[in-house]
């Protein structure tokens, strides 16, 4: 063999050898492949093919949802469904064979909807597990009493399942947790005071359960807390003073849909970092604290469905995204200036807020971004056409029980509109064909006249008008 040929042979051999070694090292560990294929075999339905490329003999480190970051061992299993795609789900159970994934640090099984079974005991056999997010599935039963044995966890989410019973006291041992999400289940009992040991929490979600009773004065135990959601429970009594200690960092506070009583605490005005505050659907009374003028970063404020009274403070926000003050005892008279000048608002709900104005006189800084406007049960006159004909993304407009007077045929119906309620006003003219594409419609008790275009609505949508005819009402006369 010539020197040239020898050199070429050695070069090609080196390339092939390197390629073979790379391929061999790239293949995932046999235990990892076995564990993942056993998981797949426990899945009884996969209509969108989430696991279709998981096949024996192929490199499992390249499978969708799999990451291998240490010596080609599986370190992350992440399968996430798409809620807006009906077929994007998995039915079946979580195979205990996943315990073979000895290097697994992150388990993410989110929005798969139809995974069933108990709390996965295999977690206790994973020595490197740090992050567990098993969200929006159908796991059920009780959380095991020895949950505290998962002491190295940095995040635990069982959000949106069907777990029952009380929170085990050993959860107090999970002192490394920065996130704890137990919302959207069927947990019962009082607020789990044992979590006051979890001093590193930045996020705590216990919403949408069946907790009850007063909140304990333990919130001073969470100096890093940024997100607190206790909504949709049956918590009662006054909002605890210890929540005031969270003011330096808390940006998100949801206490809505509970049974809280008393006044809104003055200390909430100290929360200058707060951008979301939901206190709706409680039994809060008295006035809104004047200290709310300090909430200059508030973007989402919902105080609706309480017993709050005048006066409402003039806020000094640079812009607000959503505001709901509906169904209290306010007498605002007009839509507040700080709302009118907001450059980014998309949801405005001021139902039954004592507003007495002509809608034509309202000139908001922008209308393009409005998705929802609810002005029901006020004393608003005039026409909404100048306002609504400038919106492009409107999803819902509710104005029942006012004194609006305008020709319905002149109203621009955008394609995004799903909710339109103009009942109990002074609307006249004919029913335009465009409104039949709205998802939920109410035009009852106005002065509309003429033939109703073909539609899918019940008669209640059109009752109480001057001279409407045609299905679902009586046939028109020849």
From TrEMBL:
Q: Which residues form the Leucine-rich repeat-containing N-terminal plant-type domain?
A: 31-68
Q: Which UniProt keywords apply?
A: Cell membrane, Glycoprotein, Leucine-rich repeat, Membrane, Receptor, Repeat, Signal, Transmembrane, Transmembrane helix
| GO CC list | plasma membrane
Q: Where is the signal peptide?
A: 1-26
Report the locations given in the UniProt record: Cell membrane
Q: What is its main location?
A: membrane
The protein's matches in SMART domains, at most eight in alphabetical order, are given as: LRR_TYP (SM00369)
Sorted alphabetically, which InterPro entries does this protein's record hold?
A: Leu-rich_rpt, Leu-rich_rpt_typical-subtyp, LRR_dom_sf, LRR_N_plant-typ, RLP23-like
Q: Does the keyword Membrane apply?
A: yes
Superkingdom of the source species: Eukaryota
UniProt record similarity statement:
Belongs to the RLP family.
- Quote the PANTHER family the UniProt record gives: LEUCINE-RICH REPEAT RECEPTOR PROTEIN KINASE EMS1-LIKE-RELATED (PTHR48061), RECEPTOR LIKE PROTEIN 30-LIKE (PTHR48061:SF2)
Kindly provide the name given to this protein in its UniProt entry.
Answer: Leucine-rich repeat-containing N-terminal plant-type domain-containing protein
User: Which species does the entry assign this protein to?
Assistant: Cannabis sativa
């Amino acid at each position: 063999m010539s020197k040239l040929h020898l050199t070429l042979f050695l070069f090609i051999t080196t390339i092939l050898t390197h390629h073979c070694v790379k391929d061999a090292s790239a293949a995932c560990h046999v235990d990892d492949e076995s564990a993942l294929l056993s998981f797949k075999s426990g899945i009884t339905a996969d209509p969108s093919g989430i696991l279709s490329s998981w096949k024996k003999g192929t490199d499992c480190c390249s499978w969708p949802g799999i990451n291998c970051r240490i010596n080609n061992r599986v370190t992350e299993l992440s399968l996430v469904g798409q809620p807006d795609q009906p077929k994007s789900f998995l039915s079946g159970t979580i195979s205990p064979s996943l315990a073979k994934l000895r290097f697994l640090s992150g388990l993410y099984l989110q929005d798969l909807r139809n995974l069933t079974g108990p709390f996965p005991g295999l977690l206790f056999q994973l020595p490197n597990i740090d992050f567990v997010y098993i969200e929006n599935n159908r796991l059920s039963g009780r959380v095991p009493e020895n949950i505290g044995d998962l002491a190295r966890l940095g995040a635990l989410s069982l959000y949106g399942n069907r777990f029952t019973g009380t929170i085990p006291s050993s959860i107090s041992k999970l002192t490394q947790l920065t996130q704890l999400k137990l919302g959207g289940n069927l947990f019962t009992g009082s607020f789990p005071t044992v979590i006051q040991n979890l001093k590193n929490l930045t996020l705590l979600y216990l919403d949408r359960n069946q907790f009850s009773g007063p909140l304990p004065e333990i919130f001073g135990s969470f100096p890093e807390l940024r997100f607190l959601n206790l909504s949709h429970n049956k918590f009662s009594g006054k909002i605890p003073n210890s929540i005031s200690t969270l003011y330096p960092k808390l940006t998100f506070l949801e206490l809505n849909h509970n049974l809280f009583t008393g006044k809104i605490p003055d200390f909430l005005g100290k929360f200058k970092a707060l951008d979301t505050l939901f206190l709706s659907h409680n039994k809060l009374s008295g006035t809104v604290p004047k200290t709310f003028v300090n909430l200059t970063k508030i973007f989402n404020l919902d105080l609706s469905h309480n017993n709050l009274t005048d006066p409402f403070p003039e806020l000094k926000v640079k812009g607000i995204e959503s505001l709901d003050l509906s169904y209290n005892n306010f007498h605002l008279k007009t839509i507040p200036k700080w709302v009118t000048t907001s450059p980014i608002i998309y949801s405005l709900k001021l139902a039954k807020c004592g507003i007495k104005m002509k809608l034509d006189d309202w000139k908001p800084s922008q209308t393009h971004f409005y998705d929802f406007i609810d002005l029901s049960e006020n004393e608003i006159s005039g026409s909404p056409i100048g306002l609504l004909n400038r919106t492009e993304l409107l999803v819902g407009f509710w104005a029942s029980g006012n004194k609006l007077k305008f020709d319905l045929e002149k109203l621009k119906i955008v394609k995004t509109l799903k909710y339109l309620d103009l009942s109990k006003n002074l609307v006249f003219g004919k029913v335009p064909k465009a409104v039949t594409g709205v998802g939920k419609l109410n035009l009852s008790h106005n002065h509309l006249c003429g033939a109703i275009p073909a539609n899918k609505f019940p008669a209640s949508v059109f009752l109480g008008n001057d001279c409407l005819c045609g299905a679902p009402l009586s046939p028109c006369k020849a």
